[in-house]
Amino acid sequence: xxxxxxxxxxxxxxxxxxxxxxxxxxxxxxxxxxxxxxxxxxxxxxxxxxxxxxxxxxxxxxxxxxxxxxxxxxxxxxxxxxxxxxxxxxxxxxxxxxxxxxxxxxxxxxxxxxxxxxxxxxxxxxxxxxxxxxxxxxxxxxxxxxxxxxxxxxxxxxxxxxxxxxxxxxxxxxxxxxxxxxxxxxxxxxxxxxxxxxxxxxxxxxxxxxxxxxxxxxxxxxxxxxxxxxxxxxxxxxxxxxxxxxxxxxxxxxxxxxxxxxxxxxxxxxxxxxxxxxxxxxxxxxxxxxxxxxxxxxxxxxxxxxxxxxxxxxxxxxxxxxxxxxxxxxxxxxxxxxxxxxxxxxxxxxxxxxxxxxxxxxxxx
Length: 365
Hints:
Elements: H1 2-11, E1 16-20, H2 24-30, E2 32-42, E3 65-75, E4 86-90, E5 96-98, E6 101-102, E7 105-109, E8 117-120, E9 123-130, H3 132-137, E10 139-144, E11 150-155, E12 162-166, E13 173-181, E14 184-189, E15 205-211, H4 217-281, H5 288-307, E16 310-312, E17 325-331, E18 341-346, E19 349-351, E20 354-357, E21 359-364
Helix pairs in contact: 4-5
């Protein structure tokens, strides 16, 4: 039988392993990792048997299993977050070896390498370079943030005392210690760093401001140019996303507007057709009073459509236009020129220049 050989083969299959590469900021701020992978599931059509020789299962091609996409969200408590590589085992979300019973998966979490930030335990270090003149007279330093932004701080060599300030991520007030340490200055944000497994308390964010030598100037200039280019690319990306979002919003609005107008027209136009036929039938002088009332109602209905951009297509006495007119009869007795509309059997409409319904007309042959 198909299911017997399949079961033996499945039980020998190794556990599913998935590798994800979250950023440091994702681990610290979101505390959640999205894991996307493909897993095997028992075929729901044949219940994992693969069918029989006389009735094979075409959904799984007689294999008894199908491959499906799955997304798993791993949420970590502060006590379980680690900003370094680790391995997690998640139960009952892997391959399905029996109906309703799944194997475990192994998730290899490899934290993305960052050029600016380096993790040491629960502390995060970042090096910022300045010139000797900037170190001597003080300067405005831009410190990068984990979320991709930056904050500016005026630093002077005389700054040696601790000050209470708001940390740049805007979350809580923490203590900053500014001090000079031989060839560099350290800006320490208490509680602004990462996490280490087994401890729910965040480490420190430590900025090391290094004083470069003259030989390093060319390298710093190149680094500054690269950073400017990266910022320009990021700004261009934000503008593109903004423009795309605005276009999507406009398109969704127009689609909704068109759908509402179309529903309105479909509801009103049949009643207008009926009123027009009623007017044609009121040819007797005795119907004059009723004729005026029906004509008034008809005009109100047409005005309602016109307020929403739906216009009547002129047809009577006009040259026949196959784009907006539909000829359903030929008039051989009219005195009008050839290919001229001699009678409108059903009024046509258009919305914002686009055809909504063609006019059904009789044309001089």
